[in-house]
Design brief:
With 486 residues, this protein is an all-alpha fold. It is built from 22 helices and 2 strands. It has a two-stranded antiparallel ribbon. Strand 1 and strand 2 form a beta hairpin. The radius of gyration is 22 Å and the shape is globular.
Amino acid sequence: MSQSSEVFEAPPERLTGLNLRGVFGFVGPGLIIASVTIGSGELVWASRSGAVFGYSLLWCFLVAGLFKAVQVYVGGRHLTLTGEHPMRTWGRLPGPKNWFPLLIAVPTVLVMPIAFSGISEILGEYVTELTGMKLDERQWIGQFPVREFWDNIFGSVVLVVCLLLALKSNQTILERVSAVVIGLIVVAALVSVIAASPDLAAMLQGMFVPVVPDYEPWVLQQNPTFAGRSPWLEVAIYLSAVGGGTYDYIGYLGMLREKNWGRSGSSAVDRETLDNLSDQQIERAGIWTRAPLMDTLVSFISVILVTLLFAILGAAILHSSKTVPEGDLLSAQEQFLETLHPSLRYLYRGGVFLAFIGTLYGAFEIYRYTVAESVKAVSGDSVREFILDRWRTGTILYCFLGGLIMMWLPSGIAPGVVGKMTFGAVLGGATLCGLWCFAMLWADRTQLPPSLRMGTGLKILTALGGLSMTLLGIQTLVVYFQEQLQ
């Protein structure tokens, strides 16, 4: 490409002006990310955090949300400026070819079915509870206790419904459904927090003073499953629950190609061309980076807000009543809306189904992009588009069948929901997110001319995010494998 004038088209006026209408005109894939993580992340794990630790771990959700927003934005910014997915760029890192994309992709792909199994099981357990069936825990159906059997039946139905929705959906419908779900949850949670009258001093301390406390005696007495389980493993789940992980973000960047922001929907542009951009082209490039910034900001503000609201509700209501969601991980949270009026439990139940089905529905869409972009990064130009289509279809089947098989493994063979989600969080959570940030700093310095590189503030935030998430991730890895070896 020899003409720099051909690199960046003129951005639309609504992006140049940055008015409110313009901001929401450039929100889309980020809402899908938000809807995928708002569900188990907030309704289950954030609430569980508040129930177990009170306000002490609010900092964990705030830090994870902030630094993951930076992580996602710098990746989207790179794709917008170069037309090249970061996974492909990282194949040029010093060392063996594609070592870093493989380091990111392999654990990412391995843990993807865990989400489909765990989330379906959580909702299946909740449905079983709502049916009011009188089940004798001493009875067995085949290899399963009767309760576990029905949990799996309802979880399987949920997974099949979400598969059918995913096969019939498109990105536009997905974005609109996601926006509605997020809006309903934010409003309901905000009203509930106001009614719960949380301890403001403890809340602020929990947000800005990072500590990892031990379990209180009543937690261990009422919930023996916490005995011998390090609080750091709870932190691992919470870090991964907020805003998702690499399995979401690789696919998110792939979805940006559909938006055609800057170079995102075009072929990759070489460094020589970028070095010779005119002043007008540099200005256009800078304006185009506002699009992924707006998408990231709106989605992660939603994620952080909802996460903190449910963690605060868990602390104000569940922790105060010494109630920890265990077994059925959703029923206890009905108290959040029942404090306003008993009939609002039905609003909560409807919100749960919308949120969880939205999570699985959106994950099918995102993960097929995750696998396709990973394959493209490793295979290079040798892979054709029709082959990628097969990979995308295969990904949906892999996630569906993998999730179904893991769900139906007897509890004596496979761990329960918490165990599965802990393994997925440790393997594909904070550590990979931190390494992503460091790799983006390398890509910015070596693949972009000075005129297009990150500003000092963004570099500092990216470095802090990389350091914080890598260290927290390594700590949880060490604790996890120490416990497994005992």
